[in-house]
UniProtKB/TrEMBL annotation:
Source species: Streptomyces triticagri
Catalysed reaction equations from the record: a sn-glycero-3-phosphodiester + H2O = an alcohol + sn-glycerol 3-phosphate + H(+)
InterPro entries: GP_PDE_dom (IPR030395), PLC-like_Pdiesterase_TIM-brl (IPR017946), TAT_signal (IPR006311)
Keywords: Glycerol metabolism, Hydrolase, Signal
Gene Ontology molecular functions: glycerophosphodiester phosphodiesterase activity
EC number: 3.1.4.46
Stored Gene3D superfamilies: Phosphatidylinositol (PI) phosphodiesterase
Keyword Signal: yes
Family indicated by similarity: Belongs to the glycerophosphoryl diester phosphodiesterase family.
PANTHER family in the cross-refs: GLYCEROPHOSPHODIESTER PHOSPHODIESTERASE GDPD5-RELATED (PTHR43620:SF7), GLYCEROPHOSPHORYL DIESTER PHOSPHODIESTERASE (PTHR43620)
Any GO CC annotation of this UniProt entry: periplasmic space
Domain GP-PDE: 56-382
GO process annotations (BP): glycerol metabolic process; lipid metabolic process
Name of this chain's protein: glycerophosphodiester phosphodiesterase
């Protein structure tokens, strides 16, 4: 099994390196010492971009995907209005090389492409990172064609309320997001932090659509390529992060899927290491040689038993902090069906469970941030444990 492919797909130097180091050390030490988030943030070092950020920080996962169709300007805007510290984008390319914000290149589940008879002939079956998918794919559309589509809710069976926004927004380009962030930054008198992921980078490079170069070109155009730029760059494929690290100076985060999975670039290169190897002290030391953080799945922070209930936390927070890596785990969602079993309430899988109890369990481990589909509740939980 490879990582970077979620269940949802089936149907449908750095940051101030020193600041990050400080954040990492104090994320662990601060938690152990009971320091409030503000104190931990203040201790992270001065003069670096991360001084602005709270600990723990809340990353709006695909915007506010708990409330709006994901990766739309409406989803990002609500996240910012809620006060999310960082807004996430996932990037894939169009046929003509433009970067657009989609969680995957298969746009069957998140756009109305199936309702466009002019594109019926584009439906096809492909193998993406070893997974066979049937649908419509961004790399088969020019940007002009893609912009005739409208975004829709990915999981209407769970989030029926969000479907009232179906059709309201188009698929944004990454450049549109950068322009939006500039405008909002001017309006609010502060920098707008982004957390930008390259999706399927090896797959696209083999198609002649490498992601990193056009991404860096845009980052340079909008001044987000520097040491203190308010932009995290993330990928499930370490080689994409290494490539980006040679081109920009901002903070880099290696995403980590389930322990038994392999990054797809490892599969392609014949590298036998799994995520289990990468979360050993040696693996984390290797990641720390080119990145400043990791984005592990929450199960790597606190595993679950066979009933889906939380067990004791692993040593990953301590081990990553020992390598001066920050941790931004993913993804917290408020609905029962996505919560650990011991934090569900009632029998409706789509009702909200004990969200604050579950968030506290994760945040108490000393993680430096968390990706959430519901930034508002994550922000409250972060504030309750001493964040600012
Ligand atoms: O990038 C952090 C998190 O978003 C990773 O999961 O599959 O939602 O991109 P995914
Ligand atoms: Ca992502």
């Amino acid at each position: 099994m490879t990582q970077g492919t979620t269940k949802e797909q089936q149907p449908g130097t750095g940051p101030g390196r020193r600041a990050l180091l400080g954040a990492a050390v104090l994320g662990a030490g601060g938690a152990a010492l009971g320091l409030p988030g503000t104190a931990r943030a203040a201790e992270r070092g001065r003069g670096h971009s991360h001084d602005d950020l709270p600990v723990p920080l809340v990353v709006a996962h695909r915007g506010t995907s708990g409330y709006r169709p994901e990766h739309t300007l409406g989803s990002y805007q609500l996240a910012l209005d809620m006060g999310a510290h960082v807004i996430e984008q996932d990037l894939v390319p169009t046929k003509d090389g433009h970067l657009v914000c989609r969680h995957e290149n298969d746009i069957t589940g998140t756009t109305d492409v199936a309702d466009h008879p002019e594109f019926a002939g584009r439906k096809t079956t492909k193998s993406v990172d070893g997974v066979s998918l049937t649908g419509w794919f961004t790399e088969d559309f020019t940007l002009a064609e893609l912009q005739t589509l409208r975004a829709k809710e990915r999981i209407p069976e769970n989030r029926q309320r969000n479907t009232i926004f179906d059709g309201r927004w188009s698929v944004p380009t990454f450049e549109e997001v950068l322009q939006w962030a500039e405008k909002e930054g001017r309006k609010r008198g502060r920098r707008i932090w982004l957390h930008v992921e390259t999706k399927h980078p090896t797959y696209f490079r083999k198609l002649g659509l490498g992601l990193e170069e056009p991404l860096v070109k845009l980052l340079r155009k909008y001044g987000r390529h520097k040491k203190n730029s308010p932009t995290f760059l993330q990928s499930f494929e370490p080689s994409s992060i290494e490539r980006l690290g040679k081109l920009v100076d901002g903070p880099l985060v290696v995403l980590l899927g389930d322990a038994d999975t392999q990054p797809w670039d490892f599969v392609e290169a014949g590298d036998p290491r799994t995520v289990a190897d990468l979360i050993t002290p040696e693996g984390l030391e290797w990641i720390a040689s080119f990145a400043q953080g990791i984005g592990p799945t929450l199960d790597l922070i606190i595993p679950k038993d066979e009933d889906g209930k939380l067990l004791e936390p692993t040593t990953l927070v301590r081990d990553a902090h020992a390598q001066k890596l920050v941790l931004h785990p993913y993804t917290f969602r408020n609905e029962n069906t996505f919560l650990p079993a011991d934090y569900r309430r009632g029998t409706d899988p789509n009702a909200y469970g004990d969200v604050f109890g579950a968030l506290k369990a994760y945040l108490d481990t000393g993680i430096d941030g968390i990706f959430s589909d519901n930034p508002d509740t994550a922000l409250l939980a972060a504030a309750e444990i001493g964040g600012r």
